[in-house]
Write a structure and sequence with these properties.
By secondary structure, this protein is mainly α. The chain has 2 domains: 407 residues, no CATH class; 46 residues, no CATH class. It contains 15 helices and 3 strands.
Length: 457
């Protein structure tokens, strides 16, 4: 498959961002180069008959969602289409190339192995960072306060110490962990990565949902090397979540474990999953949580109020921060706030179908020769369950990682259908009503809850 080299290069670039650590290459537009290579490879595969134009279950709703995003932007903020539209358009095309370019289990496992390798690298960087002592990090005036800055080697316990005889009197200082390749923590020691995963919450979720992939590879071939790989992934993932101080990351980690135990052992398995995740729950989290929680409540309140005021079109694609100083930090609220009712339903339909593909495999593929499909179905179901929980605390609707996993679900559908031609994933009125009524009920609950919470201080 000629599409694979470009797709794998794109995947490594988006996740691992290796060129961010090479100053001489920072100006090279690798995203567009690899994107063009992947598109060219897909066209070659199409010409040679190695792939076809058969659609995946997500495609119709993806097209509807993208068109609605651009329509709301055109009505509400046409000037934003040039930047926001291009970035989101690339994410959607990446979904399409994965979902319609990766058509065999061999290619699928190569792709999933690359995701696993990237998450292992990210977790290794984060764990190494978390094990380092705190030191002063200088941030130049005018530089983004969330940047990695420049560690100066002076030990510290708080930023106050860093202002005592500073090497650069004009710089702002943070007290952080300094990790590999100049990456530093944020918020007083919360580990993170760079690029699209520079937020500790997003980094911890991306790592946590990668753990089931390692278990799937072990199930595919039960040997000592793959068991060691799974244990390494599990431990590094757990430590990353702890060092990130992400409460959402803890719940994601618990959800990914819980799906496996619940499927195998039912209620006893759920209890066992909680026990396994207890160290992460006990050691994770961070101080100052009350202020952060109230801030999130305010964000949710604003999001629900915006949906009340603009129920049809919303405030427009990527326009939430034009009405509030922070984003919603909740994907289930951000979609209706920015895109109105139809945009909410379209986005949730795409997300639900991403989950429904592996869910349908677990229920309908019962043949002995379907063991590979069932293994990967459980892995994807576990990862997507974690993501479904994680995006309750994140504005993730347009994020590259989400659209990569939507593409993975489509590729998995194509691989299963290649071996089982009668395999189908349906979307009917029950799905539509469940999505529409369910999320509307959530918004009504949040409307009451956030109003009372803010009123009580």
């Amino acid at each position: 498959m000629f599409v694979l080299p470009g797709l794998l290069a794109l995947l490594i670039f988006i996740y691992a961002r290796p060129f961010d650590f090479m100053p001489a290459l920072r100006g090279v537009p690798f995203l567009y180069l690899f994107f063009g290579l992947a598109v060219f490879g897909y066209l070659v595969d199409l010409r040679q008959g190695k792939t076809d134009l058969r659609k995946t279950p997500h495609l119709g709703w993806v097209i509807a969602f993208v068109l609605w995003c651009f329509f709301t932007a055109g009505v509400k903020a046409p000037a934003s289409l040039a930047s926001d539209g291009v970035r989101f358009g690339i994410a959607v095309v990446i979904y399409f190339l994965i979902a319609h370019g990766v058509r065999t289990f061999k290619a699928f496992e190569l792709f999933m192995g690359t995701i696993l390798a990237c998450t292992l690298w990210i977790s290794a960087v984060c764990v190494h960072m978390g094990l380092q002592p705190l030191e002063c990090v200088a941030v130049s005036p005018g530089e983004d306060q969330n940047s990695s800055g420049r560690p100066d080697g002076r030990a510290c316990e708080s930023p106050v110490i860093c202002y005592q005889d500073p090497p650069d009197p004009e710089a702002m200082y943070r007290c952080e962990h300094a990790g590999l390749l100049g990456v530093t923590s944020i918020g007083g020691g919360r580990v993170r990565y760079v690029g699209v995963l520079q937020d500790p919450n997003e980094a911890s979720m991306a790592v946590a949902i990668g753990v089931p992939l390692a278990f799937a590879f072990y199930q595919r071939r039960r040997n000592k090397k793959r068991l060691a790989l799974f244990l390494l992934t599990f431990v590094l993932g757990a430590m990353t979540v702890v060092y990130s101080g992400s409460r959402g990351g803890q719940i994601v980690f618990l959800a990914t474990i819980g799906v496996y135990f619940l499927e195998r052992y039912r209620l006893k398995g759920l209890i066992l999953g909680v026990v396994c995740a207890l160290p992460v729950l006990a050691l994770g989290g961070r101080s100052g949580g009350e202020e952060s929680s109230l801030e999130r409540v305010e964000n949710l309140y604003v999001g629900v109020q915006l949906f009340k005021q603009y129920p049809v079109l919303g405030v427009g694609f990527e326009q939430f921060t034009q009405y509030h100083h922070l984003t919603a930090h909740n994907s289930y609220v951000l979609a209706p706030a920015e895109l109105g009712f139809f945009g909410m339903v379209a986005w949730l339909s795409v997300f639900w179908l991403t989950i429904k593909v592996p869910l349908t495999v677990t229920r309908t593929v019962t043949e002995p020769e379907g063991e590979v499909a069932r293994i990967w179905a459980m892995a994807l179901l576990s990862s997507m369950a974690g993501m479904a929980v994680g995006i309750f605390f994140l504005s993730f609707n347009y994020h590259y990682v989400l659209w990569i996993y939507i593409g993975v679900s489509g590729a998995f559908f194509a691989a299963v259908k290649r071996h089982k031609p009668d395999f189908r994933v349906t979307y009917g009125w029950k799905d539509f009503l469940g999505i529409a009524v369910g999320n509307t009920a959530l918004l009504l609950f949040l409307l009451v809850y956030t109003a009372r919470k803010l009123a009580s201080g």
